[in-house]
Amino acid sequence: MAQIMSSAARTSVPCTACHGLFFLASLAIHQKTCFRKYAFVDIACPSCKSLVRSGVYHNHVASCQGPAAVPPSKPREQQPPRETGPIGSPEPDGRIKCQKCKRSFTPDRVEKHQSVCQAHERVEKMQNQSIEHLQVVTWKPPSREKIKVRSGII
């Protein structure tokens, strides 16, 4: 059994995006879907060692000419922080935080979650508004006189 596990461990290759182990034959198939799912993860190019988003990794590697000549670097200007879009900006692991509840999701799930999360907020707001508009009515039993009048005793 240990010999089978060690031979499987030697032939498996890690995915560069999710770091899961796959056999070499199925790695290319897995990476196509994995790179779409984790499109915002930065991966180092094996040729030029520059960081490339996994969504464009295969195109970059196919056209990469190797290590690029590095021009002398100029001091960077301090740029104002970018505004996040309606979904939010990606974290280093490629996930995106919900702007309402601050939970992290993969890029393919965050938009759906935020629509539900915002809908949940709207439902709570509507429920609170409807409760405010209700008048509280307390029931009192009828007086003995009213009972006598209705029953025809008086």
Architecture overview:
There is one protein chain. With 154 residues, the protein is mainly alpha-helical. Strand 3 and strand 4 form a beta hairpin. 8% of the residues are buried. The model has no long low-confidence stretch (mean pLDDT 73).
Care to give the gist of this entry?
The protein is 43% helix and 10% strand. The chain is mostly helical.
Ordered list of secondary-structure elements with their pairings:
Elements: H1 2-11, E1 12-14, E2 21-23, H2 24-37, E3 42-44, E4 51-53, H3 57-63, E5 96-97, E6 104-105, H4 107-133, H5 144-151
Antiparallel strand pairs: 1-2, 3-4, 5-6
Top keywords for this entry?
TRAF-type domain-containing protein; 5 helices; Znf_RING/FYVE/PHD; single chain; Herpes Virus-1; mainly alpha; two-stranded antiparallel sheet
**Helix percentage range:** 40-55%
N-to-C SSE string, H for helix and E for strand: HEEHEEHEEHH
Report the radius of gyration as a whole number of Å: 31 Å
Overall geometry? rod-shaped
CATH class call of the domain at 12-63: Alpha Beta
Spatial strand arrangement across the major sheet: 1-2
Tell me about the biggest sheet? 2 strands, antiparallel
- How far apart the termini lie comes to 97 Å
Q: What is the name of the CATH topology of the domain at 12-63?
A: Herpes Virus-1
